[in-house]
Amino acid sequence: MTTRALAVVSGGLSNPSSTRLLADRLTAATVEALRTRGDDATVEVVELRAHARDLADNLVTGFANQALRTAVDTVTGADGLIAVTPIFSASYSGLFKTFFDVLDKEALVGKPVLLGATAGTARHSLALEHAVRPLFSYLRAVPAPTAVFAAPEDWAGAGGVDRALADRIDRAAGELADLISGRPPSTRPVDPFADPTTSFEDLLRGT
């Protein structure tokens, strides 16, 4: 059984949040779908609200601190990504966009991604297709065909989730598992400055 690394990016601003709730549902369904395909999975969650100041600092300095660097490495080194954002003014949140703005432009090339979004009204449901999907297409990721949107009424069914939403979650999770299965496992990117072969003192001496 191959072990796959699954990264989850949640852009929810509150705690608890419906965005994180949807992310957790999508994650559980994807882990199960991978298992039925003969793959195990490890899961690491990146809560963007914890990195709001780190991201602002990165934008103005061009450098990520250790906490943000760890989050970036989690996403770029994963075999698959689940990315869920709240929808504000008919588009992804600024915090969500900022995280993907600070990634290297090649970081998500070819990476399977499951897209999800939440909002206070179903009128925002098309934001996944006109805003979120184009973002990941621009980054040359590979979004799963089914994106999952949840409005407040979608959490009103048996077990806390509407049947139609549960079906969309299962379908999208299966599509992501199909995209991940059969691919060679990803490896974490190596930071060339993490373990320099030349000491700082030698560099100062010009040796």
TrEMBL record:
Tell me the InterPro entries matching this sequence.
CE1759_FMN_reduct, Flavoprotein-like_sf, FMN_Rdtase-like_dom, NAD(P)H-dep_FMN_reductase
Q: Which GO terms describe its molecular function?
A: oxidoreductase activity
Question: Which keywords describe this protein according to UniProt?
Answer: Flavoprotein, FMN, Oxidoreductase
Residue ranges of the region described as Disordered: 181-207
Q: Which Pfam families match?
A: FMN_red
As recorded in UniProt, its EC number(s) are: 1.5.1.-
> The NADPH-dependent FMN reductase-like domain covers which part of the protein?
6-155
From the UniProt record, list the coiled-coil ranges.
none
Full protein name: FMN reductase
